[in-house]
């Protein structure tokens, strides 16, 4: 018995939506699963991942069986991955979702897409990348627990709404050659924020959703601004602020740090500025980096 799945790359935060907003985009992690006498893992594609059963695909797979109080079978996963690793494009979430969704399919889908989302979000600790990997398009997610309780991770459930991105919005990603681990990027964030920064950022998160619902790209320049995480992460990425401004001057509707970085993302709604924005991004990443023009994607699909 063998099963295959395709899980999209994801771009999270979108500026102000820290741990909340996300997009599914058209680079993919393909995973084929087959039953075997021992656990095996064969990896091909972006970066390097050790060929051992201690990996995120196996972790997601096993956690579904644990959730259902069953023993996981031994399996071989063959992975073909086009999502850059540790660049802010959701490679870890794609791997977890792939493993969990393949386990669910193997069992006859007792969890379904919603159950896969809940389990993978708990494993990640935040839903911003997991949600678009599962549902596709533009996603808004929030953790929920009973008021007045001090919840553990297992007590939290997640609410997610997903919408298609307007068809005329194009997505550019400048992917530097260097990695930036999420743990390193989170370590620079403060424990406390000024009220004015919270108000500034929460208002823009709301604007983001309205921009998508109403296809109002004129809102995006303001909607993509952030005071919660980007100002603290930008020093980890040389010249980020300068190139962001250059892209806006070229006509990009929005520019933001994709996930924890170091990838810079831009939304283009005027076709005649794509080439000039690509040139700015190419200068930002240098000879060893890459610039991708991607499309919105559906969530995971069995093949």
Briefly characterize the structure.
By secondary structure, the protein is α+β, with helices and mostly antiparallel strands. It is built from ten helices and eleven strands.
Layout of helices and strands, plus pairs?
Layout lengths: L1 E11 L8 E15 L4 E6 L10 H12 L7 E7 L9 H16 L5 H13 L5 H6 L2 E7 L12 E7 L6 E6 L6 H6 L7 H20 L5 H4 L6 H4 L6 H11 L3 E4 L6 E5 L5 H12 L4 E5 L6 E2 L1
Parallel strand pairs: 3-4
Antiparallel strand pairs: 1-2, 1-11, 2-4, 2-5, 5-6, 7-9, 7-10, 8-9
Your description of this structure?
The protein is an alpha+beta fold and 303 residues long. It folds into two domains: 2-164 and 298-302, Ribosomal Protein S5, domain 2, CATH 3.30.230.10; 170-294, Alpha-Beta Plaits, CATH 3.30.70. 34% of the residues lie in helices and 25% in strands. The chain contains ten helices and eleven strands. The chain has helices at residues 56-67, 91-106, 112-124, 130-135, 182-187, 195-214, 220-223, 230-233, 240-250, 274-285, and strands spanning 2-12, 21-35, 40-45, 75-81, 138-144, 157-163, 170-175, 254-257, 264-268, 290-294, 301-302. The strands form two sheets. Strands 1, 2, 3, 4, 5, 6 and 11 form a seven-stranded mixed sheet that branches. Strand 1 and strand 2 (21-35) form a beta hairpin. The longest helix has 20 residues, at 195-214. The radius of gyration is 19 Å and the shape is globular.
Keywords:
10 helices; alpha+beta; 2 domains; single chain; 4-stranded antiparallel sheet; 7-stranded mixed sheet; 303 residues; Alpha-Beta Plaits; Ribosomal Protein S5, domain 2; 34% helix
